[in-house]
Design brief:
By secondary structure, the chain is of the alpha/beta class. The chain contains 16 helices and 13 strands. Helix 2 crosses helix 16, helix 8 crosses helix 11 and helix 9 crosses helix 14.
Amino acid sequence: MKIAFDAKRISHNATGLGNYSRYIVNILSNYYPEHQYQLYFPSKGKSSLRAQLPAKQQIKDFYPKGLYSVLCFKSLWRSFGIVRDLKQNSPDLFHGLSNEIPLGLRKAGIKSIVTIHDLIFMRYPLFYPWIDRHIYAYKFKKSCQEANKIIAISEMTKRDIISYFHIPEEKIKVIYQGCDKSFTQAVSADKKAEVRRKYNFPEQYILYVGSIESRKNLLLVVKALGLLKEKVHLVAIGKQTPYTEVVKKHIEELHLEEQVSILSNIPFDELPAIYQMASLFTYPSFFEGFGIPIIEALHSGVPVIAATGSCLEEAGGPCSIYVDPNNEMEMSEAISKVLSDKDLADKMIKQGKEYVNQFNEKIAKDIIDLYNQVINE
């Protein structure tokens, strides 16, 4: 079986869609090495991200040719020109890993699957510029209509696809996400000590990983810290946006400057150590398509407190704690409870690992089964 992928995110996005794209190609090539995986890149991107995929004979890279190789035409190639190249290379199926597929696949006789991660821009339009919302709505809906099957990364996303795009339920398959295997492997004591020294981390800290933006709701954790009787350190890692200044203002007002570290551009190979040294992971987001940082935390052996209201219960499972994303007192009480009760924390860690260990092989099998179903229809 020859499977083609839109590989832009693999070499261009360090988080989110990039992590998902690299993860899918990795697990499929590991569990099903008998198939060929064709990666279509609009440009070289970042070699450090591409290097997170192993060099394997069954993974082949493709790039724009001719006029489409010129910088200003590469985005057009990804939407249109790629179809010509696909017809020449004859894949059995095209998988759009990041919410869209090229126009003209169905007309060209190429079967396809699209993964839809979330429709947050429709649920919470205030977080997105007007033009972005309309472009996303057109691309996502068109892709859902044209693809033979849709992968939704959570039941929440599936319900949104049906509700907003009026897609038949039988066309959608829910297949969860996993995380990079580095989070499943124990980090050496030397590496942990090196990372702790580099960033001056205390012995005990709460961890948050995700963009510092209003939807992700880091402010809830900051406010919760201000309510705790004991001094607890918070390490927040993620791309900073104007919302960061709102968070910093509250940190100053609550006199928490010495208890909060906000970091960006952390090397990927340091993240597993940062996770594994944390005492607790918090993910207070108002809405997510799934919540990969939760999976990373559970694999790392860290208890998780997340927010209610979207699909985070699907990512964290029954072993994690969920609080109202608007209630800092509830978050504060949950933090205090986990940090003060070792038996509870140990139970959450043990059950959390059991929950996420089922993911990788099952995800790979579910995807391959779906590929075969579409190809044989």
